Amino acid sequence: MSFTFVVRLEAMRFHARVGALAHEAEIAQSIEVDVAAWVNRDEAAHGAAGVLDYRRLYDVVSEVLNRGHIAYLEDLTSEVAARALELDGVLRVRVSARKPHVALPGPLAFAEVTLDRVRDG
Q: CB 80: neighbour CB atoms within 10 A?
């Protein structure tokens, strides 16, 4: 028998260049990211066996955001999801990325994109 655990990192905050507008390619802005990873663990496993080290999950997000300009939140969530699914035991991942400071003509808490992906095969 096995169990599926969900490892969640919520409201990770970064300062990165994300956006399709010219100034967004040049000037970093606040970006928040949530990641949930569904991890399979065999019932007989003990200790670190079958456990996802959430530092590795954080590093995935940090590396993607610190690599350089990203044009769209969709690209950000897609890249993070693909890399998270490469981690041992991760069966499914949900990634949300949001911009808390979006200039629109009316009140807005944030703009957000969420992607839910399952490991192939």
A: 25
Neighbour-count burial for 51-71, b at 16+ CB within 10 Å, e otherwise: ebeeeebeebbeebbeeeebe
- Distance between CA atoms of 5 and 7, rounded to whole angstroms? 6
CA distances 92 to 5, 88, 89, 106, Å, are 11, 11, 9, 36
Reported as type and span, the H/E element at residue 5 is: strand 2-16
Going by C-alpha positions, the residue among 39, 83, 26, 24 that lies closest to residue 58 is: 83
Q: Return phi, psi of residue 37, to 5°.
A: -120, 125
pLDDT at position 23: 92
Residue 9: C-alpha distances to residues 56, 111, 113 (Å): 11, 19, 16
Whose structure tokens read 């990873």? 37
Phi, psi of 16 (to 5 degrees): -145, 165
pLDDT in tens, 65-109: 999 999 999 999 999 999 999 999 899 999 999 999 988 889 989
pLDDT score recorded for residue 42 = 74
